[in-house]
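The instructor's notes for this session suggest beginning with a concrete chain rather than abstract definitions. Hand out the sequence below and ask the class to guess, before any prediction is shown, which regions might be ordered.
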Amino acid sequence: MTRLKLQVFVRIFFFAFSSWEQGLATLSLPLLLASLPALTGCAAVKVKLGTRVYLKKIPVTSMEAKLMDAKQAKGPGIAPGEKLPLIATFISPDGKVFITEGEGHGKILWKDLKVTATVATVNGKGVVALPEDPRVSEGKPPHIIITAPSHPDLHVELDVPLRYDHSYTANYFGSSGITGSDGIAGIDGTDGMMGSTDPDHPSAGGNGGNGTNGEDGSKGGDGSDGPPVAIHVALRSGAHPLLQVSVEAEGKLKLYLLDPQGGSLTVRSEGGSGGQGGKGGRGGRGGSGGTGSPNGSSGSDGSNGQDGRSGQAGNGGRISVTYDPQAKPFLSIVKLLNPGGPPPVFNEQPVDPLW
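After discussion, reveal the predicted structure:
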């Protein structure tokens, strides 16, 4: 948080407090509340509030770091396309423990640390991200280095194992149908002509005209079918075999590397949703009867138009799977979904390594 922002916040706070003392809290409180979201996220304010501490103010003697993984029971690691948070821990001479903010729920600011990584990237909140394309990282586990500029003697390095027992999804959808046009509102009836209420020369008021009916809304457009999807599966043999999978649809290719023991890929080609029907037009209001002796009758209101029907959803797209014979025992980890579409087609034939 810049000094200017902090000064602005302090001025707003004292203005709000002084206004409250003068009985103007209803005017000042909204101003204070409106300023909080933009200002309380700043490090300086968090330090002032005691929810964060500057690392340079703490006499720490050691540092440790680890990657938080929901699958720690299977051992640490990161899969292509996955994002996992880091946690850094600091120990003071008296044994007090300080942990980084974010997933660690501690007080140490990530901005007080310098983090560099190879293959993977680490953002300003300590979150590690591995590129989706498995070719980028295969055989090259990420290496992370964390240092504390305020404590040059502190340094930790992590080699992050690669893992492929991850559940992936590849979703493709047809285009949604367009929304139907709204019906045109009916025309209001004309008011009746005025008569006379003079006892000596009475005349009836004219009747009001009827309102016309509103038009019906038009039907929404149908959704298009899901796009065709072509899948190729090859086996990368070895002591721990892995499946190489390519998924091609809409002119784009995605690659996956899967561990048959825990990994999976769900491919979906679903039709687009039908468009909403247009709203029926409002019926015209009947005109008022004219004043007279007697008064004229008011006209009838026109009927509202009916809302148009929604369009039909599209069907799932065609899915074809070409797999190498050696990969056949592991095909169950590739799940296919194309509701309303034709049954998936499976072709068994030799498939060369995909990369």
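Then share the key points. The mean pLDDT is 88. Residues 3-21 form the longest helix (19 residues).
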